[in-house]
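New to this. Look over this protein:
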Amino acid sequence: MSTQPQAWSNCLDVVLKVAERCNLACPYCYYFYQENELHKTTPALMAEDTVRHVAAFLRRGVQELGIQHLYIGLHGGEPLLQPKKRLDALCRTLRKELSDVTTVHIGMQTNGTRLDQEWVSILAEHQVSAGVSLDGPPHIHNASRPDHKGKGSYDATLRGLRLLQEGVRAGTNRATGILCVANPNHSGEEVVKHFVEDLGIDNFNILLPREGYDSEVWKPQSKWVNYFTEIIKYWQTTPKKVGKLVTIQLLSEIMGAMVAEPRAERLDFRRSTRHHIITISGDGKLSLDDNIIALDKALYDANTNVRNTTLAQFIGGPLFQQLVQAIDTTPEKCASCDWFRTCRSGELFNRYQKGSGFNQPSVFCETLDTIHTAIAAIVGRRENGVERLTQVLSRKPEIWARDFLKPVTLGPAELPLPEAHSIRLPVVE
C-alpha cells in the first residue's frame, strides 16, 4: 500500500481501427448504424504499410510530447476479422517500434465470437488484454447483438469468453474485461444477476449509450431510472450472495470516490481525461474519440492522417481542443449540483446537440442523479460515512482536461493504482 504521493505519468489512449467491418449487426452500434459512415470509404483491414506509418507517427509523437504510457486499443468493427498472421505481425511491429521510447500497453475490444485457442495463444504472446462485449442472458444479448442473418451470438460469445478466462486462470493471458450496454427495455436486475450468479463474473461495466440531444433513445428518463434502480438494489445484495460487493465500474468508481479522497482524486483524473483519445482509421486517418465523431460530421476532418500530421499538431488542433474546452466548461445546472465532483457533468457525447455543441448537461442527468443519490445513501450508512462524503463532495476538482499530458501528483493511494483508463477495461478473474 502506497503512503507517498505519486505522479500519474503522462499517458495517451489510441483506438486503432484494425478491421472496419463486423460479423455482427448490433442495432445500437454507433459506428455502422448511426450517422458515422466512415467505414464506407475505408479499407476493410489495415494494410501493413499503414501499420508502419502508424508506428512512426506514434513514435515521433510520444517523443515530442513525453508520453510515458501508450495504451493502444485494437478495435473495429471486429478486430478478430484480421487474419491471425496479420494481427500477430501488427503487434510485433508496434512493440518493436515503440517499446524503447514509451511503455506500450495493447488491449482489444471484441465480440468474442471468433475466439479460438490459437487466438487466445496469440493474445497471450503479445500480452493483449481483451475486453468482451456481453449484453446479458441469451434472450437479451441475442436481440441486441445478432449476426447479419439475425441469428443470436450469445453462445459463440460465451464460448470465446470462457477460453479467455481459462488463459487468465492459467496465468498466460492478461485479465479480461466485460462490457455491457445498458438497455432499459429489459430488466437491469436480470442482466447483472446473470453475470454474477449464472456466469460467476464479479467485475464488469455497464455503459450508457452514446446518445445526445439529437436522439430519442434516452427518452423517457423514467425507464433508465428504473433500470439502474434495479441494478443498484441487486448490487447491494451481492456481499451476501457471493461474499463480497461485486464491482460494477460505473457504480464502484463513484462509491470509491465518495468514501476516500485519494480515490476521488483518481476519479478527477479519469473524468478530466476520459475523452482524451485519438482514433486512427484503417487507412491512417486521424480523428477524435470514435464515440464523439459519430455525433456530427462537423467533429471530423477527413484530410488529417498519420502521414501529413504529427500527434502534437493534432492534439493542439481545433477539434481536439474543442473537447478539452468542453470538458473544462461546466454547464450552469451542473455548477450547483451536489454530485459535480463525482459526475463532472456526465460524458461529453451525452451533452452534445448540433448547433449548441457540448454546452448543456447530460441527457441522462436524471438517471445520473438517481445513481449518485442511491450510492451516497449507501456510503452515508457506513461509519463516518456522512463526514467522508461531505469532505469529498465539498472539494472542487483540481485536475482538468487542460492539464492533459502534464504529470499530475496524487495523494497516497489506499488501493493499488488501477490499470483502467479510457480504453482499458475492468478485470475479470
Remarks:
- The mean pLDDT is 90.
- The longest helix spans residues 221-242.
- The radius of gyration is 21 Å.
